[in-house]
Amino acid sequence: MRINKYLSESGVCSRRKADELIDQGVVEINGELATKGSQVEPEDDVCVNGKSVTGKEKNIYIAFNKPIGVECTTNLTVKDNIISYINYPERIFPVGRLDKNSEGLILLTNDGDLSNEILKARHYHEKEYIVTVDHRVSDEFLEKMRTGVEILETITRPCEVEIVRSNMFKIILTQGLNRQIRRMCEALEYKVVKLRRVRIINIEIGDLEKGEWRYLSADELKRLKTMVKK
C-alpha cells in the first residue's frame, strides 16, 4: 500500500496532507525517510513527527447540528472551535465548512479519503439549505438564483430553488463557493437573516437537536459511500 493511502486509512490525515508531510521530511518507514512512492507492508513501523502510527483505526462518522457561533476549524486556539465544542475523545475533523453565522448539518470524520471525495466539486454532490432573507422573495429573485448569479468572478451553477414562505426559500447547491448563498443574495440586494443546512448528499439533519451530534447509521454510511463513488 502506498504511504499516503496508508496514512489516510490510518486516520492520520488525507492523502494530500500525507504528501505534504512526506515533502516536509517528517514521515519515516522503519527509520528511513519516506518518499511519495514508498510502499508500506503490514509489518512496517511508520512514524509521523516521531510518533508511531499503529495502523488502521476505527473510522468515525458523525452528523452534527452546528449552532451559530461555532467555528468549523480544527485549530484549538480559535475560540468556539468545533473540535472543542464537541469534545470527542478521538481525533476527528469537519468535512468542509459551515460559516460561523450559519447553523445546521456538518459531518465530522477521521476518514480522509471519504472527506476528499465529498468535497470534490466535480462530483456535484448536493447540499440543501433553508434560508430566511430580510424581505419578500420575488419570482425574479428565485429565477436568478436558479439560473446563476455572478459572484467571486464566476457564475454560480444552476440549482434548485423553491419558495417556502414569503421571505424563506429552500436551495440545493452542487458547489461550495465561499459564503455562496450569502453572496448570491447580496448580489440580488437581499440580506440573509438565517441560514440552516439540512442535508448533505443523503445525510439529513432530521430531528437532531441544535448542538447535538449522532453517529451515521450503517445504512446511511453505505449509501453515502456508494453515492460518493458514483
Describe the structure in brief.
The chain has 230 residues and is of the alpha+beta class.
SSE layout and pairing:
Blueprint: H1 3-9, H2 15-23, E1 27-29, E2 32-33, E3 46-48, E4 51-53, E5 61-66, H3 82-86, E6 93-94, E7 103-109, H4 112-119, E8 127-133, H5 139-147, E9 150-151, E10 154-155, E11 160-165, E12 168-173, H6 180-187, E13 192-200, E14 203-204, E15 213-215, H7 218-229
Parallel strand pairs: 7-13
Antiparallel strand pairs: 1-2, 1-3, 3-4, 5-7, 5-15, 6-7, 8-12, 8-13, 9-10, 11-12, 13-14
Task: Give a verbal description of the structure.
25% of the residues lie in helices and 27% in strands. The protein has seven helices and 15 strands. It has helices at residues 3-9, 15-23, 82-86, 112-119, 139-147, 180-187, 218-229; strands spanning 27-29, 32-33, 46-48, 51-53, 61-66, 93-94, 103-109, 127-133, 150-151, 154-155, 160-165, 168-173, 192-200, 203-204, 213-215. Strands 5, 6, 7, 8, 11, 12, 13, 14 and 15 form a nine-stranded mixed β-sheet that branches. It has a four-stranded antiparallel β-sheet with strand order 2-1-3-4, with no helix packed on it. A two-stranded antiparallel sheet has the order 9-10. A hairpin with a 2-residue loop joins strand 11 (160-165) and strand 12 (168-173). Helix 1 (3-9) crosses helix 2 (15-23). The protein is elongated, with a radius of gyration of 20 Å. The two termini are 24 Å apart.
